[in-house]
Structures are given as C-alpha cells and as structure tokens.
Amino acid sequence: MSYRIGAVLIFCLTLLVSWAVGGWVGYRQVEQESLEESFRYRQLVANELNRYLPIPELMAEHPLLAEALSSPDAARIILQANVEMQRMATIVGSSDVYLLDTTGLTIAASNYLQNDSFVGQSYHFRPYFSDAMETGESAIYFALGSMSGVRGLYFSHPVRNERGNILGVIAVKVLVQELESQWHRPATLREAEMVVLDPAGISFLASKSKWLYRDFNGPESAAPGKASRRRYPDRELRPINFEVLEKPPGLSGQSGKIRMMEEGVAREYLSIRTPLPRLDWTLQVMVSTRPVLWTRLGFVVAGMVVFFGGLLTWLYLRERYRREAELALRGEQLERSVAERTVDLERSNQQLLEEVRERERTQNELRETQQELIQAAKLAVLGQMSAGLNHEMNQPLTAIQTYARNSRRFLEKGASEMVEANLVEIVSLCDKMAELTRQFKVFARKSEGPPTVVDLRQSVDASLKIIAAQDNSSGIDIRWNRPEHPVMCHGDLIRIEQVMVNLLANAVQAVDGTEQQKITIDIDGDNENWRCTVRDSGSGLPGNSEQIFEPFFTTKSVKQGLGLGLSISRQIVDALGGSLTGRNRSDGPGAEFVLTLKKRETTE
C-alpha cells in the first residue's frame, strides 16, 4: 500500500512540475516571438520615417519659399509658391504641402484651389510648427487633420533667409494608409493584436478598427487632456476595459499579462510595449496566451510519459531483483537436494532432447512444405502464361495458314504479285507473333518500356487485318467508323492492337450462328479520354459481367479459347493507365466493350 501512495504522490508532483515548466516555456516562446514582431514593426516605421524626413528640409532650400515668406502680399510670388508646392506634393506622393509664416498662418498650399484649402488657416497650435520654430530643426507629428479629419504624419522644417533667420515653416502631410496597410497581424502568431499609442496612451493605429482612438491607460485613468482632444477632434477617446494580471515567471520587464473584456468575453493577452524610433509613439503587441495552454498540456503529457516510463522501469527492476532472489534461493535448495534428484534430472534431460529432435523434424517439414508451395505457385503462373501464349498465337497462325493456301492458288494461276503480297503479310504476321511473344514476357515482368503517344486508329486498322484473315470472319458485317483526324492517346501500338484483336475475335465468335452478324467499332472522347467501343449483335454477356475478366473463365468450348483473352487485355489496359469494361447493350441484343485511354497531344 505504501508503494501505491508514494507512486500517486510522485505522479501528482510530476504533473505539477510539468504544468509549471510548460507555462514557463510557453510564455517565453510567446514573448520571444512577440519581441521579434515588435522589432519588425519598429524597422517598418523607421524605414517610412527615413524616407520622408529629409523631404521638408530639401523643400526649405527652394528660394521661392523664402521669397514668398518675405513678400506675402505679392500675389504673383504667392501663386508661384502654390504651384510649386502642388508640384512638390505630386513628386513626393504626399497628401498636402503648405507654407506657414512665423505666426503659424498658412500663406501658400498645394491645395490652394480646393474648397478646404489651408491658405488663410492658422496652425500655430500644432507641435510640428512650434517645435520647428523653437528648435530650428525638423519636426514630426501625428494627428487628425483639423479640416479633413484624416489621419496623417506631419513633417516640418524651418525656412531661413540668406542670413539664417527663420522666416517660416514648410510642412508636409503624409497619409498613413500606406503605412497602415503594412501593419498586418503577425504571420507567425495566432490570435495576436497590435496598437500604436501616442504619448497620452491613445491608439491611432490598430489591428482592430474598434480599438482606434481608445485610451489604453486603463479604466481608472484620468480623462484625456486638451492636447489629445485637439489632436483627435470629434472622437470619444473611451478607455479600454482591461485588468493587469500577475506577471508569469520567466518574462522580461517589457512583458505583462492583461485580461481584456471584449463584448462580454474575457480574453487574456501577453502585452509587450516597445518605443518606436524618433517618435514618442509606443507599439503594444498583445498575443493571446491560449498557446501557452497547449504547451503546458504537451509538457504534462511528456511528464506522464516520463513518469510511467520510470514506473515501468522500476517495476521491471523490482521484479527482476525478486526473481533473482528466488532463483538464488532455489539454487541453494537444488544444491542441497542434488543427490536425491539426479535421476529426475537425467529423465528431464532425455525429455528435453526428445523435444529438441521433434522441433527440428517439425522445422524440416515446414521448410519442405514451403518449398512445395513456392513450386506450386511457380507452376500455376507458368501454366497461365503458356495458356495465354497459346491463345494469342492461335489467331495469327490461322491468318498465316489462310495466306499460305491463297498463295498456293495464286501460284497455280501465275499471279506472282498476289503471292508476293501474301508473303509480305505472312512476314508481317510472323513479326507480330514474335512481338506478341515478347509482350507476353512483358506481362511476366511488368513491362520493359514506357508507353508513348500513338494513334489509336492504327491499332484498330492492324487488328482488323488479322481478324479479316480468319475463316470465321467471312460474312460478318464489320463497320469501322474511322475518324478522319488522328486519335492520339497514351499507349503502345502492339499492346493496344493485341487488346483490339481479343475484343474483335470475341465479337466474331459471339455473332457466329446468329441471324444478324454485325460488329461496330466507334471512337469518341471527352476532355481527358478517348473511348473505343466494340459492339456485337450476339447473345450478350452473363449476369455478372466482371467475372468474364477472371483468368480461365469462359462460356466457350476449349477449341475457341482458354478464357485468358479478356484477363490479359485488362492487364494491358491497366498498365497503360486506362480501363476496359464490358456490358450488355441497352439498344438491342449483344454486348459492348469499351476501351478507355488517356488523351495526348501530338507534340508530347
């Protein structure tokens, strides 16, 4: 009982340790990935600022701006400045470019022709104006446009005269749509959100639209000040409802755990705040802590595996030591009683020797039986191959016999040209018999070459020549609806011809003795396959049409075949990636066989 209690306590301790370590590792992984995403976002902002920051300084060097500030009442010069700033805005791809005097009054702008033109408006309250005037350097500011209400980045630089005195400020507004389009959610994290906060803790960029212009200082923070109201006019700036939770162990000072209420649902996030370069902005990345649960569960499972592995090892060693002790005890007992049990041991040895001899005899008989089974399987395969070769050789031999008889008659008549033609056909049939023999060897070792692109019509033409040479084909109406254009398919001419000869020979035998002896060959296709259909007007197939493709199954006499033709034909078609099916005709008596092969282009 004490062992069981100890095992339960160790098991519980293992689960607790695994849960704690899994949480530590999970939070560390989430924090590391969050820091990487924060760094990537900081680089994105830095690149965007570096692209636009030098532009106002370069614009301020234009002499026309200093001339316009020096002569604000000169209409011609002001018009030239308006046109020039309009051109500048087009070149740099900014929203607006405008010129302010030392009081913050806009005297020229790129949108001077629009109804909401900045000309005549005072922006002395904007920090980008006051900072540039006070420091004499470039300034950056983010706010909503006071007239357009559109978010934008404001870049400014003082305009000086030849003596270095500040005459005014040139300002460039850049919309944040391009920047915001790149602020997508982290690609490597799940359930991660992002917001960008100004110095007052108000969000002006966010992965969720409902988080825009919200106060992220907490529900108990003070109401936004006048500066924030001026920066975001007509916005509620409501605080986000979240609660700061206890910080998990192992995290850095940048990270914290918060619980946010969203539509009545509490969600926990790991929050990381990172300052953005050259600005007083703060990037806050919030990653769901749900993956930590899966990490903890993984560690718990691993801890359970380690615990049960250790437990099984301990049980094994304990049992082993117990058995060794028992064996030692029995050894001592055997030593004490060796004299009394000598006879029993000898008898046991004899029995063991007899069992060993019996086992050896059994193993020898098993080996012999296995060899006999292997030999029987070889004989069965050789028998099927020999019967198939006899079936395939019978048809061309019949045609050769017919050509030879005709040649004898033509010799008697002196028609040497016809004899020569018959001899050519006989040589061709002999070549085909050799090719059939080679193809039969291919069946045994699964093919010797890849299929190519062939014209299906040629195989049908060649098979009709062999069938026409048979005696039993005379008087049969064989209609070959030959397509005018090539029928290029994936296959092999000889193997397809062998299949067609089998199908046509079966059709000839099927219509033998019927009143209407008719065989039709058609070719049609769809987007991917060609279908060659052989129809006869015979008595049809048995009820189970798939049985006809089994080896040695036949409804004919032994003289008509061994029942291997259709089986071999299906093997050929399957090897070519096609299919061969047979069924009874629906439009009348007889059967039809459909050979399907894949389409191929002639350029392949």
Primary descriptors:
alpha+beta, 13 helices, flat, six-stranded antiparallel beta sheet, 18 strands, single chain, 604 residues
User: Sheet with the most strands?
Assistant: 6 strands, antiparallel
The shape, in one word, is: flat
Which residue ranges are poorly predicted, with pLDDT under 50 across at least 5 consecutive positions? 185-189, 373-385, 442-448
Number of helices: 13
Tell me the strand order in the biggest sheet.
7-6-11-10-9-8
Mean pLDDT over the full residue set: 79
- The oligomeric state is single chain
Q: How does the helix and strand content classify structurally?
A: alpha+beta
Rg from alpha-carbon coordinates = 47 Å
In brief:
The chain has 13 helices and 18 strands. The protein has 604 residues and is an alpha+beta fold.
Report on this structure.
The chain is of the alpha+beta class. The chain has helices at residues 2-52, 54-60, 63-70, 75-92, 127-135, 177-181, 226-231, 290-336, 342-413, 416-445, 456-468, 493-511, 565-575, and strands at residues 96-101, 106-109, 139-144, 151-160, 166-175, 192-197, 203-206, 242-244, 255-262, 265-275, 282-288, 452-455, 477-480, 488-491, 518-525, 529-536, 579-584, 591-598. Helix 1 runs antiparallel to helix 8, helix 3 (63-70) runs antiparallel to helix 4 and helix 9 (342-413) runs antiparallel to helix 10 (416-445). The longest helix is centred in the middle third of the chain and has 72 residues, at 342-413. The protein is flat.
